[in-house]
Amino acid sequence: MALTPYQRISYRFFGRFVRKSANKNDRLGISLQKSRINVIPEVYLSYALMSSVISFAISFLLAVIIAAFFMTGRFQVGSMTWILLVMMPFFVAAATHAFMKIKPDMKARGRAKDIDAKLPYALNYISAMAAAGTNPDVIFDTLSRQKTYGQVAEESAWIHRDMAILGKDILTTINTAITRTPSIKFQDFLQGAATTISSGGDLKDYFMAKSEQFMLDNRQAQESFLETLGILAESFVTVAVAAPIFLLIMVSVLPLLSGGGSPFTLAYLIIFIMLPVSHGVFALAIKWISPEV
After folding, report:
1. Which residues of the chain have pLDDT under 50?
2. How many domains does the chain have?
3. Which range of residues forms the domain containing residue 41?
């Protein structure tokens, strides 16, 4: 894959400085493969370093503008404000570099989640093709053209590329794909296929058995999710609906009975802070546990 102009400039400036670090960082190369970031580690580290430098420069310029505005005397600022302004460029640059370091792993986890979600249905397609007597290289070729299967199709495209373009045999190709995929489930499927081939077994029977197994696992995961969703729904009614209503009634009635002050401050906190936060937490929890289908 051709480098972008930004990546080429980054590598030109910082390539020689990060080469030794990249050669020692085997994990980065594996993460880049699993995330499908198609650059070598030296280029990626150069790109990350350039991004950090640029973010430092931009935040430094912003800090200077803010400091100049404060020095006009319109606002009284304390020493802590000046310390924060001085530290801001360093913090932004460090945060940018930290994000660039974890970006391949984050992308790989996203790909693994998509593969795990689509794999049961892709295996149905594979088993149907195998039952018709189709060769494995043709199966992976046709699967790679089915974009419905998301990252499974992407993995299949790389498998087909290794066999059709690089001329590797199917066993070597599968073993390479095992080290390249971020999905544990897809690794398990490919490892079983490699074992079946090595032992002289029938791939058609293996594909059909795996299809049934993954569909059963997927059905059980959906049932487990529905049970968890029911528990969350009961908790939501209690915590995010009934409790705020009860608190609103209490803070409205008690000051009237006791002759105290206005209850509006506490009521505003419940309405504008407690309710949105509780609803947001439940929404994030549901999104986090929801399986993709």
Report:
1. none
2. 3
3. 5-109
